[in-house]
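Justification of resources, computational component.

The compute hours requested in this renewal are based largely on the per-chain cost of generating structure records like the one below. Each record pairs the submitted sequence with a full structure-token output. That output is archived, and it is also reused by downstream analysis tasks.
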Amino acid sequence: MIEFLGLCVENLIKSIKYLSRVRFSSILTQAASISYDSLPISLIIAFIAAAVIAIQVSKQFLMSGAETYIGGTIAIVMIREIAPGFAALAIGARAGTAISAEIANMQVTSQVDAMKTLKVDPVGYYFTPRILAAALTVPMVVLLAEFVGVAGGMFVSNLTIDLHPARYMHSAWLWTSTKDIYISLLKGAIFGALIALVCATQGYKTQGGAKDVGISTTKAAILSTVFLLAADFFINLVFYII
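The structure output for this chain reads:
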């Protein structure tokens, strides 16, 4: 794990050095592949997560006379944790594994060696557009997931305990601060870059044949999840505890 983390840092440095040579069309293509194509599943997960939370807390809050706090509770949970985390995990499961499989396939079919022969840095060429596209567009997915999640909680709260949408949104508005939204967008950018970097690195270090491509893709899914959770912990530690 430590060796892999060092390899990720090394590849990140190479990618940063390649920034001036990356093409906008490449970033746009990767943005569509990473975030736009993952948008439906991310929003569905956010809606379902908020709906489940609303079902779990609505009756308990109603029994204690605290139903006016349902909107604020769901909004805080969605914005601080659920929307950034679940959206990133969905993107990692869909787009991250695709990145790993694509680069691993290029590695085992000697396309990477051909790039080196042409005096082109394969790390910069393959990694930089993906990392940049993910860092820029995953926060947009996170923001949409937050809106959908809060709306989903409002819908289910109204359906289960007949909580008026105005009371729900008033509570959500009072509890939510701009700091929470900014931190959630920062999480999205970090998570997006991390997914692209970890999955691309795992794919790049693949050796062997077609079987190894599948193994590498599985490892990429596991590693990206572990690194995402670790990054989430440290971000929360910095902004909400210290």
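The chain is about 85% helix and 0% strand. Residues 22-237 form one domain.
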